[in-house]
Amino acid sequence: MAAQAQQETAVDPVHDSVRDREISGEQEHLDRVYRRLEEKIHEAEFLMHDAARRGQVGTPGALAERDAQVFRAGVHLNRLNNEFEDFLFGRIDLLPGKDGKKGPDGAYTAVEPAEGAVRPDHTADIAETLHIGRIGVLDAEYSPLVIDWRAPAAAPFYRSTPVDPGRVVRRRVIRSKGRRVLGVEDDLMRPELTAFLDGRELPVIGDGALMAALGQARTHSMRDIVASIQAEQDLVIRAPAASVTYVEGGPGTGKTAVALHRAAYLLYQDRRRYAGGILIVSPTPLLVAYTEGVLPSLGEEGQVAIRAIGSLVDGAEATLYDAPAVARAKGSSRMLKVIRKAARGALESTGTPTRLRVVAFGRRLELDAGELAAVRHTALGGTAPVNLLRPRARRLLLDALWERSGAGTRHTDPELAAELRSSFDDDITTEDDFLAFFDAWWPELTPAAVLDAMADERRLGRWARRVLNPGEVRKVARSLRRDGRSVHDIALLDELQAVLGAPARPRRRRELDPLDQLTGLEELMPVREESQRERAERLAQERTEYAHVIVDEAQDLTPMQWRMIGRRGRHATWTVVGDPAQSSWSDPDEAAQARDEALGSRPRRRFELTVNYRNPAEIAHLAAKVLALAMPGSVAPRAVRSTGVEPRFVTTGGEPGRLQQQGQGRVPVRENGAGEGAGPGGSLAETVRAETARLLERVDGTVGVVVAMQRREEARRWLDGLGDRAVALGSLEAKGLEYDATIVVSPAEIADESPAGLRVLYVALTRATQQLTVVSAERDEPDAAGVPDLLRD
Ligand SMILES: Nc1ncnc2c1ncn2[C@@H]1O[C@H](COP(=O)(O)OP(=O)(O)OP(=O)(O)O)[C@@H](O)[C@H]1O
């Protein structure tokens, strides 16, 4: 953080008047900006009306031009009318630039100051003042009133530090609401300098913007960080979009925030290139809901899709979580073999016909089970998608029947033989029995139908032989028999889609010709199946591929999920953010291999984020103990602030309804809590409920109660009636979220729940921005101070 110099205090009347003067200076500027915006709004409205007045007639070219004009004006108007609360949020005061050149936004381009800009007595004159906002605004003379935060000229606002200040002397964050400036917070980048602006010494106000932002209460929606992006984050946000931008950083280092701001930056940089869309993949619907307001607040919507990993396949929505052992099997790349076998094996079900009987050229022909199996075997040779093999299978069946008929020996003349064969085929393929047989023998398979077939343990056992052990087969099959899909099922559905190929769709029927109806011709017109080329074209249209793919919480993706996302970004550039120490996936090496396959050989630029903006040092210190167990040798990010509030430890008592607690004073125990009479669970319920109520009184924002996955339904009931500031969630659902205060319930239970349990516990312990309480049950083996075994030194 920048050094503070000449800090003002609110009680000093002289300084207060300086503050007021500075605020009213910024107010004047904001007023000017709004006047200009109003002019622009009028212009846009005029353009729209003008275009509309030109009426409905004209050449197609003129009408198209009019529509384009209305569209452009409408978009512009929309943006301008969007009165962002803090439309204008920053300002930098700069020394003169080295070469005196100006960029397209009217600002000097040089990063370094001109020689002699700083005089030997450490004084200097400010040559340029830039205001930074969510969108750029030029005055009537095309001078910048506000620079868009994504423009190159705004970069020094984020990049400048006291170590490497460039031309920036003072960096100011402006707080406003609607059209009113409320306050300013300054950081001096060159504290050694006495700088003058218009002959007056440059004052410095406030405690710095970052701390002010971090101390704010949290709601259930993430805020943008546009006013306080830090230098190491800015490097990632503005990294060139070539190939893969790979970002690692511990909890709270701003990875999610950076990923979202990067999407906005890329669109600003090259809107045309990203017309193909930007996909942001998030681990949970909760995190999607938490983050989806950020981009609209940055003025970006529409071209960015934020999707949970369980909602990536159209028409399927994951509502369930699998038990760890099932998740491990379903997510592993071992499933690939199973899926491929299932896709072929599912062609046969209990209703599959075992005999084909047809009449051709007046003769009965028959193929028995063995012959049909041989035809199927030949048809399935190779790796082509099963649904696309239907025409081939049909042809092979006809070949076998043709051979059986012996008609091929009747003519030696090739032309006559071909004609005979063609009428033989027609004879058979117009027979209803044959069509019914074929649909039953080689049905068009859907991914959902195959996944349902895998729910049969016997069949799954066959398809998974030597890949899954019998225990895994049993558990996976059972999990597929539940109502609803799990997160891991979605990747299997997507893989099946790729292995099966899209089912062919009958071409839209020709428009009915009345004459055909009269002559009965319509009935004779076969409904033609889609050709291979038509199908390929349709698939290309329907394929959900993106120009840029951003993966949040990438450490959690299973190999099967990497394959699913990889298919959506085959030609994309990528931004991948994650933290290996928070991975809930049991086999990181296997996942890394799948990730490398998805990203291909594209070159990667690696970045690291090192500062924890979320957790106060007291909480980060406790979490680091689990990190040391989960990933020995890895370094926790440095917490940027400290609150003086230590984490609190509470234990459940033996009797339901009683709780013992250590730390700051006794907690009132509710006698009629949510879990009364529920044995030891009742005790836990009351403990957590009482602690939640206590924290709700101490923080203005949200309280999150994180429990082991198996307890999440129960935990929701614990909080009944406490209001919507408090939420209960399973450890895996806590990914990426944050709360003013967090209660982590039974660290041992969370850690024991899966092979990656310690890393999941690390996630749970790093969700709080202000206060953390750890509730221990007996299995946590708390010491006399209530500190569970896992969190002791
Ligand atoms: N430069 C910043 N200015 C203000 N707030 C920031 C800044 N960087 C990050 N934050 C805040 O810190 C918190 C953590 O950010 P974020 O959720 O993006 O971290 P993360 O690295 O994704 O964390 P995790 O790995 O735990 O999910 C958020 O509240 C975010 O707004």
UniProtKB/TrEMBL annotation:
Bias type Basic and acidic residues, positions: 13-25
Positions of region (Disordered): 1-25, 579-601, 646-684
Top-rank taxon, per record: Bacteria
Keywords: ATP-binding, Helicase, Hydrolase, Nucleotide-binding
Domain UvrD-like helicase ATP-binding: 228-616
Pfam families (UniProt xref): AAA_19 (PF13245), UvrD_C_2 (PF13538)
Protein name: DNA helicase IV
Source organism of the structure: Streptomyces prasinopilosus
